[in-house]
Specification:
Radius of gyration: 22 Å
Protein name: MFS transporter
Subcellular location: Cell membrane
CATH topology of the largest domain: Growth Hormone, Chain: A
Number of helices: 18
GO molecular function, one term: transmembrane transporter activity
Strand content: under 5%
Distance between the termini: 19 Å
Number of domains: 3
Low-confidence stretches: 1-12, 201-207, 471-505
Shape: globular
CATH superfamily of the largest domain: MFS general substrate transporter like domains
Mean pLDDT: 79
Oligomer: single chain
Largest sheet: none
InterPro entries: MFS, MFS_dom, MFS_trans_sf, Sugar_transporter_CS
Keywords: Antibiotic resistance, Cell membrane, Membrane, Transmembrane, Transmembrane helix, Transport
Length: 505
């Protein structure tokens, strides 16, 4: 499936037309909203719990409900974009996001608020892969796409950073404003998207078909995995409910893989995972985002619980990282053009590991100049290098009619990684924190979690270093299908060095 781009937008290799810029800005706006929404709600949780009289266990589902809807339905969202039309899926989901945002700010009960958050996560599970696949099918592989993806990811970082600051300000007025703010922004993006995003025709169902069994088992397995991981720290990793849930997840996943191998039109074509760069991109997303979510959780606890900083002061401490990402991400495209994604990712994970290791030197007295600020700058640089490169590597060499699928896979890896690593880090920290009676002991209980995050980042570095090995191009394209797999040459080298891929084109 290809997006039919009007003639005014086809100059993507050189100068971009006004409509092309408008399309990109609408897509960036949706990603900005996703990041804004994730970061804003965290600071507002104490006020929400007090106003709605929610227990801590119930309150966590204000965050976890969003994660469950988002992480559990991304595979389905990505494939729906391929089959039903990316523009249609994106705009409908964006409209649902706006309505859910409005309702979330008006409800007066915990269950209704959690339900609105789940619906927002569900809608984001469709806008995220649809938006990314619109970019990758509108901009040709090479410098133009790399530039577009760099701008796209910088908007995500900007949204996350602004969300941290805005949440501190808006919560002072009232927590409902943190829920309501995304609604008018989403509505503006929806109106602009209707006018600017070029029409696309989804693959006809009679020609490609729908994998209903795969959709059911794949979605159920992802929903159950995210739910189990989120609940495990509360009910216990070895509790009967947790073990049974993991067993059912394994059974559903096995059924999903079996269905995908046998069906004629799979939800996820497993052959794409024979590609080394594709596997590294998805595993890298798990390790990268998972470690960052865990780091943010621990550092927020350190700033507010031990140091005594306010929510706004905590948000401002994270701000240098967000500003650096927003500024640097737009300049990553030329680096990828020159050095390839494998080298940029290796450097990014090395910087990330160094940043986490540096924060291990933190003390009861905040060492802003020696530890906190350098750590935030290193992490900001790492995010600027890693996130655009993961998107570029995951979508390189993939046919247009599977861009939604690989986008859904990548975003699923991001969300599952965030939920999994955060749950493990929480379990590690709380096991020691319960016995801590002094501030120094509490800080010491955080250190194993920080060390674990450093090890996760180092694992990502080792994984990316395996992509630096030069190999002979395979005889056939990994992403090719059917008889084409016997005749098409590879379209990208092992490390997805864009100049070489562009030469083939």
């Amino acid at each position: 499936m290809h997006i039919s781009v009007p003639s005014s937008t086809t100059t993507v290799e050189g100068r971009w037309g006004a409509r092309l810029w408008g399309t990109l800005l609408v897509l960036c706006g949706a990603m900005f909203l996703d990041a804004l929404d994730v970061s804003m709600v965290g600071v507002a949780l104490p006020s929400i719990g007090s106003d709605l009289d929610l227990s801590t266990a119930t309150l966590q589902w204000v965050v976890s409900g969003y994660i469950l809807g988002y992480g559990g339905l991304l595979l389905l969202g990505g494939r729906a974009a391929d089959l039903l039309g990316r523009r249609r899926v994106f705009l409908i989901a964006l409209g649902v996001f706006a309505v859910a945002s409005l309702l979330g700010g008006l409800v007066n009960s915990g269950p209704l608020l959690i339900a609105s958050r789940f619906v927002k996560g569900l809608s984001a599970a469709f806008t995220a892969p649809a938006g990314l696949s619109i970019i990758t099918t509108t901009f040709p592989e090479g410098p133009a796409r790399n530039r577009a993806l760099s701008i796209y990811t910088s908007c995500a970082a900007t949204g996350f950073s602004m969300g941290l600051v805005l949440s501190g300000l808006l919560t002072e007025v009232g927590w409902r404003w943190t829920m309501l703010l995304p609604a008018p922004v989403a509505l503006i993006a929806l109106v602009a998207g209707i006018k600017l995003i070029p029409r696309s025709a989804g693959t006809r169902p009679e020609r490609r078909g729908y994998d209903l069994a795969g959709a059911a088992t794949g979605t159920a397995s992802m929903l159950l995995l995210v739910f189990t991981v989120v609940e495990a720290p509360e009910v216990g990793w070895l509790a009967g409910r947790t073990l049974v849930s993991f067993a059912v997840f394994a059974a559903l996943l096995t059924a999903f893989v079996t269905i995908e191998r046998r069906t004629r039109h799979p939800l996820v074509r497993l052959g794409v995972l024979r590609s080394g760069p594709q596997v590294r991109a998805n595993l890298g997303a798990v390790l990268f985002f998972g470690s960052y979510v865990g780091f943010q959780f621990l550092v927020t606890q350190y700033f507010q619980s031990l140091v005594g900083w306010s929510a706004l002061e905590t948000a401002l401490a994270f701000l240098p990282a967000g500003v650096l990402v927003a500024v640097a991400s737009t300049r990553i495209g030329p680096l990828v053009d020159r050095f390839g994604t494998a080298r940029v990712l290796a450097v990014g994970f090395a910087v990330l590991t160094l940043g986490y290791a540096l924060f291990l030197r933190v003390d009861i007295e905040p060492r802003v100049g020696a530890v906190i600020l350098p750590t935030m700058l290193l992490i900001g640089l790492a995010c600027a290098l890693v996130f655009p490169s993961l998107n570029i590597q995951a979508t390189s060499g993939i046919p247009d009619d599977e861009q939604g699928m690989v986008s859904g896979m990548l975003n699923t890896s991001v969300q599952v990684g965030g939920a999994l690593v955060l749950a493990v880090v929480t379990a590690v920290v709380t096991s020691d924190e319960e016995a801590a009676t002094t501030p120094a002991a509490v800080l010491d209980s955080y250190r194993p979690g920080l060390a674990l995050l450093t090890a996760v980042a180092a694992t990502g570095l080792l994984l990316m270093l395996t992509g630096l090995r030069r190999r002979r191009p395979p005889h056939s394209v990994v992403v090719a299908r059917g008889e084409q797999a016997q005749s098409q040459p590879a379209t990208a080298p092992e490390d997805v060095a864009v100049p070489e891929a562009s030469a083939v084109r």
